[in-house]
């Protein structure tokens, strides 16, 4: 019986540790965010979504905006090249 109590005590200590470190809240928030997605990620997308949520910076909106910025930068470079060509 002492072994069972020891295991339960260690589990509780570990749970408290995870709670104090914010791990439980982070996992819960990531899972809630995934649940609230209107279109669920396909295949390994759920795992990737959780990895991104836990890494702290890969909000789908941020990812979309970063892609848009990159596209606009490329377009800007093309337009600069055309302006330089027309000025020459």
Key descriptive features of the protein:
mainly alpha; single chain; rod-shaped
Q: Could you explain how this protein is built, in words?
A:
The chain is 82% helix and 0% strand. The protein has helices at residues 2-21, 23-35, 45-55, 60-87. Helix 2 crosses helix 3 (45-55). The radius of gyration is 24 Å and the shape is rod-shaped.
State the oligomer: single chain
Output the number of helix runs.
4
Structural class estimated from helices and strands: mainly alpha
β-strand percent reads under 5%
The residue-averaged pLDDT reads 88
Blueprint (SSEs and pairs):
Layout: H1 2-21, H2 23-35, H3 45-55, H4 60-87
Quickly describe the structure.
With 88 residues, the chain is an all-alpha fold.
């Amino acid at each position: 019986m002492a072994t069972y109590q020891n295991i339960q005590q260690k589990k509780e200590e570990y749970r408290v540790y995870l709670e104090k470190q914010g791990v439980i809240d982070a996992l819960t928030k990531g899972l809630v965010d995934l649940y609230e997605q209107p279109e669920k990620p396909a295949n390994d997308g759920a795992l990737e979504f959780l990895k991104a949520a836990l890494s702290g910076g890969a909000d789908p909106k941020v990812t979309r905006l970063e892609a848009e910025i990159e596209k606009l930068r490329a377009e800007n470079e093309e337009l600069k090249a055309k302006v330089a060509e027309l000025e020459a």
